């Protein structure tokens, strides 16, 4: 008999984390940092734009500023006190909004217009704006998905998918909408066969599908304090429905909300998918939360656990002394084969407000283990997904070069860390 063929060896994936000590400047002077902002790539796939959020202090004022990350430096665009960027940003103050790479540029949708003492995320907004590289241009003022905040939203440059969120006081949704460049299309009004109603879920493009993970459900009083589960779903274009890929412990990542989740591109077909970073478990007890510092790759069919440079908070004996990225937002930068992550980092005792700052990382695959994200060749224009309404071809003018914030960033490589593959099977 012939000897058995050797089993195919899957590559051990490793990530490189480049950390930049370039704190995102505050909209007003203070010792706090922001959360619940939006972050998405511009059409070039190199730059990424950030909008709004709130500062984690007792006031809870929503922000209305725009910043551009070019891979090394933050530059103000509008809504700041810095020279050249003092003009108001048209969308106005908001947080918990959606911001995704869509047809013609980054698209901002909805959110909560909290603009006063205390954080009260009611009512939701229903407008949508497109960033053209220099200004925000309103696309619609009362868009079809309706008012909502905390929805999951992601794009691939050719389309944008939106799921769930809070649509009224004590009411969460599980509907699914697609923006094809011209209009919003209701793909699924919500059913028992799909993901449950939730907010704060993670949604990303994995290179072939939109993938949805976890989030927060509502308790009996309508408060978002229960886990929506650790289920993972992909949107099946052929069937026009959500397909559950795993649930419970079989998935791998634990339950979470407000995590960073974005497409990680690569020239290597083995090294691509959607990268899940950190997040927060709000379900461990009343008025408590646990920040997470883990990293997972969804490769289109299974979750792969990767090492990260951040120490597990609950396992640490010096919880007040470690630094973890919390309330982070990430943006796919396919033109660089990287994901940009910016997050609040508590520094000091008990995650005190007075000890917060912002940090930014470029994260990518590291096949040669040199501690630097692997480069990639220029990517072709995204191919529109099959929908009932073809996505139009949009032309966006050249993106002007913003004036950098005066700073001297310290750039350092955190190094290369590997991971392991977890067996997961698909279930419907």
Highlighted features:
mainly beta, four-stranded antiparallel beta sheet, disordered C terminus
Helices and strands, with pairings:
Blueprint lengths: L13 E7 L13 E2 L2 E4 L6 E4 L2 E2 L10 E4 L4 E5 L19 E5 L2 E5 L18 E4 L4 E5 L11 E4 L4 E9 L2 E9 L4 E5 L13 E4 L4 E4 L2 E2 L8 E2 L4 E5 L4 E6 L13 E5 L8 E9 L8 E9 L4 E4 L19 E8 L4 E9 L9 E10 L45 E11 L7
Antiparallel strand pairs: 1-28, 1-29, 2-5, 3-4, 4-6, 6-7, 8-9, 9-10, 10-11, 12-13, 13-14, 14-15, 16-17, 17-20, 18-19, 20-21, 22-23, 23-24, 24-25, 25-29, 26-27, 27-28
Please characterize this protein's 3D structure:
The protein has 428 residues and is mainly β. The protein is built from no helices and 29 strands. A 9-stranded antiparallel sheet has the order 22-23-24-25-29-1-28-27-26, with no helix packed on it. A 4-stranded antiparallel sheet has the order 3-4-6-7, with no helix packed on it. It has a 4-stranded antiparallel sheet with strand order 8-9-10-11, with no helix packed on it. A hairpin with a 4-residue loop joins β6 (66-69) and β7 (74-78). The model is unreliable at 6-10, 27-31, 387-414 and 418-428 (pLDDT under 50).
Major beta sheet, strand line-up: 22-23-24-25-29-1-28-27-26
User: If helices are DSSP runs of H or I spanning 4 or more residues, what is the number of helices?
Assistant: 0
Strand content: 35-45%
Distance between the termini: 39 Å
Query: What's the helical proportion of residues?
Result: under 10%
Rg over alpha carbons: 20 Å
Average pLDDT value?
80
Low-pLDDT segments: 6-10, 27-31, 387-414, 418-428
Major sheet characteristics: 9 strands, antiparallel
How many E strands?
29
Overall shape: it is: globular
Reading the helices and strands in chain order gives: EEEEEEEEEEEEEEEEEEEEEEEEEEEEE
């Amino acid at each position: 008999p012939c000897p058995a063929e050797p089993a195919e060896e899957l590559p051990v994936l490793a990530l490189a984390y480049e950390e930049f000590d370039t704190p995102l400047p505050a909209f007003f002077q203070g010792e706090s940092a922001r959360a619940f902002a939006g972050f998405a790539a511009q059409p070039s796939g190199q730059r990424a734009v950030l909008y709004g959020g709130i500062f984690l202090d007792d006031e809870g004022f929503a922000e209305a500023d725009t910043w551009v990350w070019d891979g090394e430096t933050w530059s103000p665009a509008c809504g700041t006190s810095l020279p050249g960027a003092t003009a108001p940003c048209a969308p106005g103050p908001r947080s918990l909004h959606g911001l995704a790479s869509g047809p013609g540029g980054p698209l901002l949708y909805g959110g909560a217009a909290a603009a006063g003492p205390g954080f009260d995320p009611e009512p939701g907004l229903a407008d949508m704006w497109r960033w053209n590289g220099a200004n925000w241009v309103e696309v619609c003022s009362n868009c079809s998905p309706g008012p909502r905040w905390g929805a999951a939203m992601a794009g691939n440059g050719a389309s944008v998918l939106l799921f769930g969120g809070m649509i009224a006081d004590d009411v969460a949704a599980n509907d699914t909408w697609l923006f094809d460049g011209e209009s919003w299309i209701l793909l699924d009004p919500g059913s028992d066969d799909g993901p449950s109603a939730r907010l704060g879920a993670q949604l990303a493009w994995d290179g072939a599908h939109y993938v949805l993970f976890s989030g927060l459900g509502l308790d009996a009083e309508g408060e978002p304090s229960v886990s929506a589960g650790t289920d993972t779903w992909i949107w099946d274009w052929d069937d026009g429905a959500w397909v559950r890929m795993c649930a419970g412990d079989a998935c791998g990542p634990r339950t979470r909300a407000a995590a960073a989740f974005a497409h990680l591109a690569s020239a290597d077909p083995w090294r691509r998918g959607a990268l899940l970073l950190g997040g927060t478990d709000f379900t461990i007890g009343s008025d408590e939360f646990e920040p997470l510092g883990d990293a997972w790759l969804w490769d289109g069919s299974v979750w792969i656990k990767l090492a990260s440079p951040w120490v597990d908070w609950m396992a640490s004996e010096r919880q007040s002394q470690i630094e973890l990225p919390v309330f982070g937002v990430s943006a796919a930068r396919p033109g660089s084969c990287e994901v940009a992550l910016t997050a609040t980092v508590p520094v000091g005792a008990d995650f005190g407000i007075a000890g917060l700052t912002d940090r930014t990382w470029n994260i990518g695959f590291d096949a040669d283990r040199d501690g630097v994200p692997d480069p990639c060749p220029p990517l072709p224009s995204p191919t529109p997904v099959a929908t009932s309404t073809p996505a139009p071809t949009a032309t966006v003018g050249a993106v002007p070069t913003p004036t950098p914030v005066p700073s001297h960033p310290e750039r350092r490589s955190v190094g290369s860390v590997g991971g392991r593959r977890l067996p997961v099977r698909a279930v419907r």
